[in-house]
Design goal:
Blueprint lengths: L6 E4 L1 E4 L2 E9 L14 H28 L8 H11 L2 H13 L4 H18 L4 H5 L1 H16 L13 E5 L4 H4 L7 E6 L7 H9 L3 E3 L4 H4 L5 E5 L4 E4 L3 H22 L15 E6 L5 H6 L5 E5 L1 H4 L8 H15 L4 E4 L26 H7 L1 H18 L2 E5 L5 H20 L10 E5 L2 H5 L1 H7 L2 E4 L1 H10 L16 H16 L4 E3 L10 H6 L4 E4 L4 H10 L2 H11 L5 H15 L1 H6 L4 H5 L10
Parallel strand pairs: 3-4, 4-5, 5-6, 9-10, 9-16, 10-11, 11-12, 12-13, 13-14, 14-15, 15-16
Antiparallel strand pairs: 1-8, 2-6, 3-7, 7-8
Helix pairs in contact: 1-2, 1-3, 1-6, 2-6, 3-4, 4-6, 13-15, 14-15, 15-16, 18-20
Bound molecules: phosphoenolpyruvate (PEP) and magnesium ion (MG).
The site of phosphoenolpyruvate has 10 residues, from β10 and α19.
Length: 607
């Protein structure tokens, strides 16, 4: 097929689909900082001028970005205002000029030094939360100036107008929510795993993505034509005619198939032998409600509320949270919406969030732990959720990363305090609002029988459950090959949680990415999951397979699978089962699906 010298790079297929288009290189971070001494007064004066011009350019860039922000994200403009202020702050502006004049340092070095000093100062003010929260803003503002001095422009994702494939070393979840589904054809990053939050956002926007593509930024040049296969993780740079033809045909076949099955997406998620489950959507921002409804969501199974807190300069106030939750509930009524309390930390960071020096942030003060530590933030969110629950009475409250009973007792105690306060003020709320726990930690599975007595539902977060049970970082491309949803240990943990929930008479959902993977439908049905919650674009395929499955056959299959010893053995059994039952789904969509199902990429760690 290779009738000309195209180049193929292999990464991790992170969001399915095929993208063909021009590459747009985003160069975040890793700008080399030259260091040299200035000789002579003229050189110092010229360097001061160059620095002043860079500051003015950075200010103008921020102003342009502020003006282009879409109305629904207007509040995010405050973040840019803070950065504008930082550019003129004496600790950066004055100190950089001093360093150029007195130490005769070149401008990039002077800015880098003053940034370091400012950050050290903020870090030392450990009891000053406001100062701590400015570190990320200082970084962002400083990086912009360093880039301008180095002749690299900082690209704002919202300002990419050409339809293109974004190629970057890394994209933060905050960057990812700025992506425009219509304009971003595909995404390629050098780092990140299949279950990182950036990959999840790409999937929910329906943008094909490949992560962990080592050296992509070096190998791909601006405007190169690239093919991105978000399933297999293959990237072809400067493809030949025959490669273009092949992938264009595949793209056409997939789109035609999706169009066909999407016509039935509104039908209930009911197996051929009449077992009814619920198929719901995971969303990060309210704009996704349209996609959720269009794709047949029967409710919102997971609203990741932390994304509303990201990309902004300050904590959102109770009123803006209330409006957000109220709109969500109203737009989805009478279907239920599950609002998960703040799950910040690890890879989901914000500028105002207390910056902690943690060696292992995934094991650190994140999620419910952060909320129980900073109770005012938690209470404000609970008040907003409770107030929003009054109108349509369709809100369920869900706590992430529960590790045991103590956190449930503590969270319930705080919830009762907030309820009592609202009652005193005669502010209405839904007194029967269901209260649920995410099962994401092995300790929560071990305690599931007791936890089930305290909550109204479970939702299994398989992304984190896999991470914490197998002991691998879900965002780390080097151990992505170990990320095995079909690991027998993982399936046993899911079964144990489901059984404990059902024994106590409460429903059990899965809201991790496993629920949106068509391959896993027979396994999750056989494990007796009551509700599948996934990114909206996955709904038509998953619902289609649920409707064509027999519950009896899935239960028999799972009984066999639970006796197997390795992920490979289970993977082979799943392959056989789905190939036999749903051949056309996998012929069209997943030509290499068996290879990619449980082993996203067979790549050894480079260490
Ligand atoms: C999960 O861990 O499976 C989950 C749904 O939560 P998140 O991906 O937001 O951590
Ligand atoms: Mg999680």
């Amino acid at each position: 097929m290779n009738d000309h010298s195209s180049l193929t790079v292999k990464g991790i297929g992170a969001a399915p689909g095929i993208a063909i288009g021009k590459a747009f290189l985003l160069e975040h971070g890793r700008i080399p900082v030259p260091r040299y001494r200035l000789f002579g007064e003229q050189a110092v004066a010229d360097e001061c001028k160059r620095f002043e011009q860079a500051i003015a350019e950075a200010e103008a860039d921020l102003e342009t970005i502020k003006k282009s922000i879409r109305s629904e994200f207007k509040e995010h403009a405050k973040l840019l205002e803070v950065q504008q202020m930082i550019l003129r702050d004496p600790s950066i502006y004055g100190e950089s000029l001093r360093c150029i004049k007195e130490e005769r340092a070149n401008a990039q070095l002077a800015v880098t030094k003053s940034l370091r000093k400012a950050k050290e100062l903020f870090s030392s003010l450990s009891n000053d939360e406001y100062a701590q929260s400015r570190i990320a803003d200082v970084n962002a503002a400083g990086e912009r100036v360093v880039r301008i001095l180095a002749g690299h422009n900082h690209t704002n994702l919202e300002n990419i107008h050409e339809r293109s494939v974004i190629v970057a070393h890394d994209l933060s979840p905050g960057d990812a929510i700025q992506l425009q589904a219509g304009r971003t054809l595909g995404i390629v990053t050098e780092i990140g795993g299949i279950f990182s939050h950036t990959s999840i956002v790409a999937r929910s926007l329906g943008i094909p993505a490949v992560t962990g593509a080592e050296n992509a930024v070096r190998l791909i040049s601006q405007n190169d034509i690239v093919i991105v296969d978000g399933r297999t993780g293959v990237i072809i740079i400067d493809p030949s005619e025959s490669e273009l033809q092949f992938y264009a045909n595949r793209q056409y076949e997939m789109e035609a198939y999706l169009k066909l099955i999407s016509r039935h997406a509104h039908l209930p998620a009911q197996t051929s032998d009449n077992h009814r489950v619920s198929a719901e959507a995971n969303i990060e921002v309210l704009e996704e409600i349209v996609a959720a409804k269009d794709n047949g969501a029967e409710g919102i199974g997971l609203y990741r509320t932390e994304f509303f807190f990201m990309n902004r300069a300050e904590l959102p106030d109770e009123e803006s949270l209330y409006r957000d939750y109220h709109d969500l509930a109203e737009l989805m009524a009478p279907s239920q919406v599950t609002i998960r309390t703040l799950d910040l930390g690890a890879d989901k960071l914000t500028s105002w969030c207390p910056t902690l020096e943690e060696a292992n942030p995934a094991l650190g003060l994140r999620s419910i732990r952060l909320c129980l530590h900073y109770q005012e933030i938690f209470k404000t969110q609970l008040r907003a959720i409770l107030r929003a629950s009054a109108t349509a009475r369709n809100i369920r409250l869900m706590l992430p990363l529960i590790s045991g009973m103590a956190e449930i007792y503590q969270a319930k105690h705080i919830l009762r305090e907030v309820q009592a306060e609202l009652s005193r003020k005669r502010i209405p709320f839904d007194k029967d609002m269901p209260f649920g726990a995410m099962i994401e930690l092995p300790s929560a599975v071990a305690m599931a029988d007791l936890l089930a007595q305290e909550v109204d539902f479970f939702s299994i977060g398989t992304n984190d459950l896999i991470q914490y049970s197998i002991g691998i970082d879900r965002s780390n491309e080097h151990v992505a090959y170990l990320y095995e949803p079909l690991h027998p240990g993982v399936l046993r943990l899911i079964k144990q949680a489901v059984d404990a929930g059902h024994d106590a008479g409460i429903p059990v959902a899965v809201c991790g990415e496993m629920a949106g993977e068509p391959l896993y439908v027979p396994i999750l049905l056989g494990l007796k999951i009551d509700s599948f919650s996934m990114n909206p674009v996955a709904l038509p395929r998953v619902k289609n397979l649920i409707r064509r499955s027999s519950m009896k056959e899935c239960c028999r299959f799972v009984n066999k699978v639970l006796r197997m010893r390795t992920a490979t053995e289970i993977q082979q059994a799943v392959s056989k089962m789905v190939m036999r039952n749903f051949p056309e789904e996998f012929r069209v969509f997943d030509q290499n699906w068996a290879e990619n199902a449980t082993l996203p990429v067979l790549k050894k760690s480079s260490c």
